[in-house]
Design goal:
The protein is mainly alpha-helical and about 180 residues long. The chain contains five helices and no strands.
Amino acid sequence: MFTAVLFSYAVIILTHKSYSTVFENLGNNFKMPGRSTSGSTGFISFSGVESALSSLKNFQSCISSGMDAASSVALDLVETQTEVSSEYSMDKAMIEFAIMDRELNHYIKAVQSAINHVKEERPEKIPDLKLLVEKNFVALQNKNSDTDFENNEKFVQFKQQLKELKKQWLAVLHL
């Protein structure tokens, strides 16, 4: 059981560091000129950005796997009647995963919004896409609230399973 708890925390740390690295690399792909040196309109390729977005989307499955592991550990802790502080740690781990999931979704939306803006508007001068993404990301982050977790399917499922399992154990104890 202790190994599972360590695994859950390792997934949190590694996933967070990994998508942070992808964010940095993604930012480096945004320096794309809109015109060639001859003055004619240049072709802007978003393939590097879209490839980085694909990598970010793969991290969503890592976050989901981490949430599944943390949920499983928490339920095992309740079943084995382990002390409440361990259960509380798993609850905090689930919140961390939910936060990472929300941030990752916001960043993906911000990048997609910036790309769509340039593709649709076809401006004469290509804006600083990294700045545009950051602006979109901050706008999405500013809308965050604690109730966002109520919309995270895995977090809600975790809380419901935990509640049901506790109810079952209380019923067994009172027999």
